[in-house]
Design a protein that fits this description.
This protein has helices at about 20-35, 45-50, 70-80, 95-105, 125-140, 165-190; strands at about 10-15, 40-45, 80-90, 115-120, 140-145, 150, 155-160, 160. With about 190 residues, the chain is an alpha/beta fold.
Length: about 190
């Protein structure tokens, strides 16, 4: 009997703004997720994906994609078993590029767990996450309760990387990864 492949966790960087710091938090989280061992881990940078603003003529529910960038995005999202959205908080909300990436597809997201690494100022990005939870549940994703919320995010960085040994951040990431792994096992067998 063969051992099933480890599930794939995609860590999606939800900002394309010049000067963004989300890639540092995605890199930090990806390293922790790889050490955790429950997942194969892949980082997706929406700045590199470069989706235009919703240009498909048909509703995503129909899955009748006409553009290669949508077909590529569909294949990327489809292959994952779970997601972590790394999101800034912009003006009490999340970024337009993340909303656009979510809205491009429908079925590819469904029945998969999603966690959040949010960052910002005093609010730590939690307002963005609260709004995102409304969107992801509509896409039939399963948001986990555990999350990583990073207040005063700029102060957590040194030379463009997350400063080492922040036990509270590491612990919140570990708890979220445990819950993502638990839900992924349940949803993959359902």
């Amino acid at each position: 009997m063969s051992t099933p492949a480890r599930p794939l966790l995609q860590v999606i960087i939800g900002s394309s703004r010049p000067g963004r710091i989300g890639s540092a938090f995605a890199e930090w989280f990806t390293g922790l997720a790889e050490k955790h061992g429950a997942f194969d881990v892949e980082t997706i940078d929406l700045a590199e994906v470069g989706l235009p603003f919703l240009d498909e003529p048909n509703h995503p529910k129909l899955r009748q994609y006409t553009h290669q960038h949508t077909l590529d995005w569909s294949a990327t999202v489809e292959r994952a078993d779970a997601y972590v959205l790394v999101t800034p908080e912009y003006n009490y909300g999340y970024s337009a590029v993340l909303k656009n990436a979510l809205d491009f597809l429908c079925h590819e997201w469904a029945d998969k767990p999603v966690g959040f690494v949010s960052y910002g100022g005093v609010g730590a990005g939690v307002r963005a996450v609260q709004q995102l939870k409304q969107v992801v549940t509509t896409l039939r994703m399963v948001p986990v309760l555990e999350s990583v919320n990073i207040p005063f995010a700029w102060g957590k960085l040194a030379e463009g990387r997350v400063a080492p040994e922040d036990a509270a951040l590491d612990q919140s990431a570990e708890l979220m990864l445990d819950e993502l792994a638990r839900l992924t096992r349940k949803l993959r067998t359902a």
